[in-house]
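Entry 14. Two folds queued back to back today. First construct below, sequence then structure tokens.
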Amino acid sequence: AEESEQILRFLFQHLTRPEFTCRFVWTPGALVFWDNYASQHNPINDYHGFTRVMHRVTIGGGRPCL
């Protein structure tokens, strides 16, 4: 735990830097996809008064080529 604390702190701070984030602006009929293999989803509840509908889709196969 002691050895991993510094690297984990660095990684958590690194992945939230603005240049590594995407802020999607919802509009009527908008549809968004993201790849959980290569990204991290961090929803922000800024849609007060509206219903958020989400569907999870899993695609079979092996590890994607990066």
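Second construct, same run, same settings:
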Amino acid sequence: MNKDNLQIQYQDNAGRAERVREAVVVQLSALLSANDVTLGVPMESRVKSWASLEEKLERKQLSLDSLFNLHDLIGVRTILLFRGDLARTLHLIESTFDVVSLEDVASRLGDSEFGYQSQHFIVRLPKSWLQLPSLVGLDDFFVELQVRTLAQHIWAAASHKLQYKQESGVPKPLRRTINRVSALLETVDLEFERVLEERKTYFETSK
């Protein structure tokens, strides 16, 4: 599909994509709250703008047959306060949505490389949702769901400024510094979990 036709398709379907984005945010927020999952910050979401989509197509020299083949047109990011909630959140997503794929972004890194950690799902709306009048006919969209902890999110946000484009171009002293920052943020996750366990033990033994 040429760019002009793709833009027309985008304009015709941007409103429908927005309805999908809103439904995912509302329902996923309610699902996590009902299961006592604590968010580190409010859920983030967006429908990719045409300008952003156009830039991506040009930068990566992509050719799309249809807007609906794009996996990240709609994006939702869930940032958890506690690492212990990560496995439960992944299970809730897998048991609720029609999951197309799941990638642990950290698996892209070698043992000596540094980078952020995040779980990336590509999903479609579950069939039960599509029976609702407000969501009928919205089964043609993919949604990218990102799940990470607050400490992982801090690293992801900061790493754009801290890292080099090529791993080989990082001077060794700076490499050690960056690895130390990454390790400190991972320690934050672990210490939060330790505090939670100590708090739980305290209340159980003080009854």
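Quick look at the second one. Residues 110-114 have pLDDT under 50 and may be disordered. Helices lie at 3-34, 50-60, 86-96, 127-130, 150-162, 172-205.
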